Amino acid sequence: MKLAYCIEGFYNRGGMERILSVCANMLCDTYDITIIIANQKQKPLVFKLHDTIQIVELGVPDTDRKKNYKKLLSAYLVDHHQDIVISLAGLDMYFLPQIQDGSRKIMWFHFAFDVSKMIWSEHYSGIKFWIIYYLQTWKRIYYARKFDKIVVLSKSDEIIWKKYCRQTISINNPITIDSCLISSCEIKRAIAVGRLTWEKGFDYLIDAWKLVNQKYKDWVLDIYGEGDEREVLQHRIDSLGLRDVIHLCGNSSHIEKEYASHSVFIMSSRSEGFPLALIEASACGLPLVSFACNQGVSEIIQDGYNGFLVSQVGDIRGLSDFICELIEDEKLRKRIAAHSLESSNRYRLDKIKAKWIKLFHQICPD
């Protein structure tokens, strides 16, 4: 069976790109896999792919992008038959089902159902915000209905999507690190991982750590990732006098080693789909603290069992209180860490692979 994934670019070090690489690598011993890239912009592939995976770059120009993308993708798919074509819900989601190439079409949606709410709230307010939000949401639903299957990342998102698109199922992201070193949870360091962008909420985390630092001056926060907000975040750290206790560490090619050398994992995002960093940290035996920014996060963290959930996004005091609780009680920290490690088994690669194989053979039994 031949599978093709469509993505606009494979050069950003984001969760979607990482998950694509992991899933393609785990399935390439079972299927012939092609990754079709709209425009790589002469940049290297961000994650390593197995030698058997074929990479096709269409070279879609920036001008009249949608029209040219459809034309080039249509030509490729007609000339190179695929059994299943999977959209990662980029620009191609608006025309992929229209391409008459004989393949079954899947939309793989990596974001929370109401992601538009977070995106547009940054730019608009009042009635204008709600008009744009509803228009964008219904536009997505309209085009999603044309796919043979829609795959979302959490059970809660599946329930919402099924109200509009009955062909929706959920398949969780798998743990993406090859082998895990397990944290002792005895090192006075906390870790956060993600792109340095507004939606990841590191401004909230920095403000929360100011409160933590007032009580526990010997604890350090390391933030791994890169992004457009680096200078803004560094300025915030400096202005709060936290340069010695909060470090922007950049990207790491061995993130499991970083998890294992810390004792608490913190996520302060404004919005998430099904965050990779949470299940990675869980697999390395870290207790988790996060805002309950959507139901996907709440599916991973069982409040009080394998971590703590702060009910209100932006509740700096609530976030700092849970961090302090884990810092001051080592027995609690280690007990929750053990539960976190155990709960990560749900996201093992073999379990997620079996779900994808089942889906592919349901929609393309021959």
TrEMBL record:
Any matching Pfam family: Glycos_transf_1
InterPro entries cross-referenced by the UniProt entry: Glyco_trans_1 (IPR001296)
Domain spans labelled Glycosyl transferase family: 190-337
GO molecular function: glycosyltransferase activity
UniProt-listed Gene3D superfamilies: Glycogen Phosphorylase B
Keywords: Transferase
Name of the protein in its database record: Glycosyl transferase
Organism annotation: Segatella bryantii (Prevotella bryantii)
